[in-house]
Amino acid sequence: MPRKRSGERKIGNFDKESVAEAVKEVGSGKSLRVAARNHGLKKSTLQRYVAATRDQEDLSQAKLTANYACRRVFTEDAEKELAGYLIDCAKMGFGLDTVQVRELAFQMAKKNSVKYPSTWDEEEKAGVEWLFGFRQRHPELTMRKPEQCSVDRAAAFTPENMKTFFGNLKNAVDRHPSFADGSRVYNLDEIGTTTVGSVKRKILAPTGVKQVYQSKTGERGTLVTTLCIIGANGSALPPVMVFPRVNFQPHMLINAYPGTLGLAAPSGWMNSDLFPEVMRHFVAKTGSSKQNPTLLKMDNDPAHLAIDAINIAKDNGVTVLTLSPHKSHKTQPLDVSVFSPFRNYYDGAMRNWITSNPGKNVTIYHIASFVNVAMGKAMTPATILSGFRKCGIFPYNPDVFTEADYLSASPFRATEEEVQQVEAGTVPETAAVTTSAATSGEDSTALLSQEVAAAAPPPPTVGDTTPGPSTSTFLGPHAIRGLPHKTADPKPARTTKSRKGRSMIPTDTPEKLLLEARKKAADEKKAAAEARKAAAAARKAAPGASKRATDKTKSTRRACIPPKKRKKSQPSPSTSDEDEDDPLPLADSDASETWAEEESDDDGLPVVDPDALDKLEREPQEEDYVLMKIRTPTGNKKKQKITFKIGKVISSSDEHNNVTVSLLKKSVRDKAKFLLCDPVKIENVNVKKVIVMILPKPKLAGTKRQQFHLSFNVDLSLVPFEE
Q1: Which UniProt keywords are listed (predicted)?
Q2: pTM score, whole prediction
């Protein structure tokens, strides 16, 4: 039976005015039956309202409508507040699903001591019927499947960033008045076209089948990058396609869109070596020159900012305007209005081909024909013009985005007060509550239980009377759960900062010089790395290199005691240069042993001899790193396998002198380092029998990734760790 029954409502379908007129007629002497017939009411209904208003002279203050809200859990104002909260969360990108809404409703009812059904306590959430009625009473809410949006995209779309972009756009239009009519304004962006479709559509299938399949030619497919260019006048230029091949062949563009440019790259991605060809293609198709300039808007991908491409654009009157990263979903006309239908038509063309050619696989040589079909259907003038209008590019509209559009960035922006607290080092302990409140309703409820009313009476569980809060203050969803918000966290002492992208006009001389300087620095760094790599390969291939490494290993293993400290001497510049450039000569075994012994002492680290470890100097404490000697039984009862492990003490010793240790994993790449990630805990580790040494505090690297790699100020090369 359908939940929403068809037909008009049979009871309660009258208004207040008709009831008031009928009551007045009865008071003036008419019968109940006649007055009810005149106003479309039932006699029993009119009789009930006449009896209820017998002692009231002013009918305007009387309640003359059906009271179907008497069994509602929340009042109308409370439900409006909840609906507004759900809308705000959805705009911020943290929308709540049906289960979370039901849990929030239960928390609201319990916190405000309103009457609700007893089944809510059993499941700790509101019922399904309440949710259905809530949605019926608030048609402004609907169920939608959200699109995936990364945190970077949401956080980057701010009024400040968009003000910079529209300011650069206005400067470009002011320089060239011919851009104002939109006939010389273009947008460039890339889309991935693969041999496997990505859009899932519903199909007609028989009932009673649990799983329905759709044939496709592969699991992951092969990528071909398609670069599209559209104009603000509704036109579309021939695309550029990058095939995953070393060399481009003409037959890759069979049945392609007329004028398509074909390129090849091993990865199938656009790169800085190919983009100059794209810029020449754009200049040729638009007829751009210094007398007839054009404006090209694109993202600031490193491949798009190739110096050669910028020079070609500057020489041919192309003004390039870039946008800072993570905003193409709002400010790229191609992303806003074109690429979505393009994907649908592309997948439709692929499905038609698969249906007509069963058993055959889609290859990269078929993609050009699919792109041709999709461009003809998706890139219509109406669709293109709509994209430029929604982005505020043409017609120029810097106020196209409202405050509601910027709500997605609000959860990731700390307030000025929080920033000042972080800078002053006075962050309160509850500063992180705001972030957790956005994702965990239970945590926020537990915190509020300490702040609101510690001794609140248990709520009744019979929902048959008029609802309402038990106190004068009603705790809404904003007070119970809170809006998503990230607090300002103190920055670590050492962090690796990456250069943030920004909106700019790279064809301007200052920006162009800055790009050239960055490219020069990157080239020098790359050349230096290649030179070091070549020098290392030359040293490795030099005569005697393998013998020296072998002698070094043997000599180090013989060093069972800390090596003697050698006398420091000041080497001459000539000898130091020779030592850096030429391999050390190994004339005899004595020289090799001397060199190896000195090499083991270069860092000044004491060598740990596992056979000469004495008693512990002190008892291990929490946060100490210890070396453990573990004995494992073998097939021979008289022999035991002895291995060593390093662990971190996470609990102090108990009455039996046992501690709990978290094991560290030995690094595969660097034998002198140990990994802290995913440790295994071992309980009841005896201090006297297992722990043989307390290691010094480990050294931590600067980056977050390197902080998981621990190294100690001792030489553990002689310790036989288990691999």
Answers
A1: DNA-binding
A2: 0.59
